[in-house]
Specification:
Blueprint lengths: L10 H12 L3 E3 L6 E4 L8 E8 L16 E7 L5 H11 L5 E6 L2 H16 L4 E6 L17 H13 L4 H13 L1 E7 L19 E4 L10 E4 L3 H15 L7 E8 L5 H17 L3 E8 L9 E8 L2 H8 L2 E2 L4 E2 L1
Parallel strand pairs: 3-4, 3-5, 5-6, 10-11
Antiparallel strand pairs: 1-2, 2-4, 7-8, 7-12, 8-9, 10-12, 13-14
Helix pairs in contact: 2-3, 4-5, 4-8, 6-7
Amino acid sequence: MKKILNKPESYTDDMLKGIYAAHSEVKYAADDLRCYCTAKKVPGKVAIITGGGTGHLPLFLGYVGEGLLDGCGVGSVFQSPSAEQIYEISKEVEAGAGILYLYGNYTGDIMNFDMAAEMCDMDDIQTMSLVGADDVNSGAPEVRRGVAGIFYMYKAAGAKAAMMGSLEEVYNAAKKAGDNARTVGFALTPCIIPEIGKPNFTLEENEMAMGMGIHGEPGIWNGPIKTAAEIAEESLNTLLGDMPVAEGEEVSVLINGLGATSVEEQYILCGNVLDILHSKGIKTSHVYVGEYATSMEMAGASITICKLDDELKSYLDYPVKTPFIRMN
């Protein structure tokens, strides 16, 4: 294992200490480094809280900032934050208009956010909850994992909250984005969890895994590495088969690197994806290429499409400023 760290068991806390030292826009609550919050609370605004395991930057905590989210519970690598941490963040960032819990569709996260909501209810803090579940290859819609497509939910909810929408309006904005986003991902290599010190799965030298999850969950097939054009074609067949897009309709495209895929490779994939969409008469705008939801140092990428209308485009156009993300 070759990583820049001190002790494997302090990986998450040492990372957080570095972020707090570098960025005054964020702070932590309840004397707990893992209760990550914005330092710029806006009175009367709906607060949005997410959470999840370390190892996915900029997901999850990288989305805390102006125009996006207000807090994030930080778990150990690939582990959920606790209900108590989510509750402490809730008390810190709640600004009089209620809280939207917005997070990925994982069992531990669901359990702990539900418990935190019950604790908030006892304090008369109103909450609503919504999960991202955009990973088409991970199963039926009700069990799908939330992966990079949650970006669109964050963006819509964050914009609506910044516009001083009500809690129900913020929830509806996020739900609309989630209902219109689909993702397909693939891995070329495993990654190493610091506390374990060895790869979390195995792929042969010239092998890839289509549908692999961001925690190393099994995909739908392992086989020889395909070309970028072949990956784009298979991925779009899956995405458009699950969420048809008619000729003349418009989508946003997100090409997301999983941690060890060069930007050059991501743009090669992006070009193939856009060529296929345009050949079908599908319009594209708001194209994003980069790392939005990683998996430590895993090589691979994901492709997300989000069906657009004027409302969703207005949310994507809303300016954002966090220590990790800038959008004007």
